[in-house]
Amino acid sequence: MAGHTQQPSGRGKPGPAPSPSPGPGPGPGASEPVTLKKEIGLVSACTIIIGNIIGSGIFISPKGVLEHSGSVGLALFIWVLGGGVTALGSLCYAELGVAIPKSGGDYAYVTEIFGGLAGFLLLWSAVLIMYPTSLAVISMTFSNYILQPVFPNCIPPAAASRVLSMACLMLLTWVNSSSVRWATRIQDIFTGGKLLALSLIIGMGFVQIFQGHFEELRPSNAFDFWMTPSVGHLALAFLQGSFAFSGWNFLNYVTEELVDPRKNLPRAIFISIPLVTFVYTFINYLCYGVTILGLLVLRWRRPALHRPIKVNLLVPAAYLVFWAFLLIFSFISEPMVCGIGVIIILTGVPIFFLGVFWRSKPKCVHRLTESMTRWGQELCFVVYPQGAPEEEENGPCQPSPLPSVDKPLKTQ
């Protein structure tokens, strides 16, 4: 949302009352800071990672991976390698999550390390491209599977599928806005359901193998290419698989709500990633390169920063090499599509300079951007957490120098 923004607090722990801010007089709850409650334990942390990874992608991506890889054996190898690269990225995010203990995921890290413009462009592209399209695909896939038994002999009507998709999105949006506890409970239930369904598919696969139907898995047939894949084809195959693995970094969006993140963040990663890799190996990643690059920049700029989790530099380096490979050959293979994506991202530059960077703008423009920001916060039930003053001064990372809103939102 364009306009002046306020950064969340550093650690999310309750502390002394914040000093009064200019604006309306303090309300009844002004003696206590607004913070995110730590209600997410290890089990819920694991289900957040697994539940966000396992979704519609596993039912959509295998076709593209198999088409671009050219053989069953290479397709399975791409799935395994995708799980390994996901684990490397997750370890890098674990270090960032405890070094910069703020909820917000990629946006919080990129803004902290590279500044407001980079963080704004990241969130701009996410709001315009990444999140809407992925949520649309997930909700449409969900509605199609729900409606298929009702229309067993034909394709479900498009109108019915869209209405059910919108209803599902609205319901889940309301639940996530209302209660962290209920959101995690629903996440736990749906994660269990997805794992159960995939377990049934794996079980039926083993039944077929035990019955002798495994011709395509024989070494002599597994790498029998029906086409010779080029480097560009391999990059596209990895990108198709990345849609299925996307979501592994979602736990970093709720770091402030995680109970004992120093222990539970790496535990959740080591429990969830191998499990998901196992599932995708039997069923059939450009992703988060800028954020991983930020880890190297943070190591260089702030070498003395306290890091409860510190990965070997070879881990982010290997991830960045893989990310650069995907980026370069994706541009070579699909220059038009990648170019359009870059143009959409760059459209956020004038919005950032108008709403955030241009501080001496006319009062009418200032009021417009401020009202748009406040309206967006009220629409999405956003109230920024407030930490103790000394905590923000002594925290591991200081907030980026973005202007703040003059009129704070009411928290009651």
Radius of gyration (CA) equals 23 Å
Instruction: Tell me the helix content.
Output: 55-70%
Beta-strand proportion = under 5%
Mean pLDDT: 71
Structural class, from secondary structure content?
Answer: mainly alpha
CATH class: Mainly Alpha
Number of extended strands: 0
For the record, the CATH architecture stands as Up-down Bundle
The oligomeric state is: single chain
Q: Spans with pLDDT under 50 lasting ≥5 residues?
A: 1-27, 277-287, 388-412
Largest sheet: none
| The CATH homologous superfamily | Amino acid/polyamine transporter I
Counting structural domains, the number is: 1
How would the global form be characterised?
Answer: globular
Number of helices: 16
Order of helical and strand elements: HHHHHHHHHHHHHHHH
Amino-to-carboxy terminus distance: 23 Å
Fill in the CATH topology. Amino acid/polyamine transporter I
Describe the structure.
With 412 residues, the chain is an all-alpha fold. It has one domain: Up-down Bundle (Amino acid/polyamine transporter I). Helices cover 65% and strands 0% of the residues. The N terminus and C terminus are likely disordered. It is found in: Membrane. It is a multi-pass membrane protein. GO terms for molecular function: L-amino acid transmembrane transporter activity; neutral L-amino acid transmembrane transporter activity. It holds the Pfam family AA_permease_2. This is Solute carrier family 7 member 10.
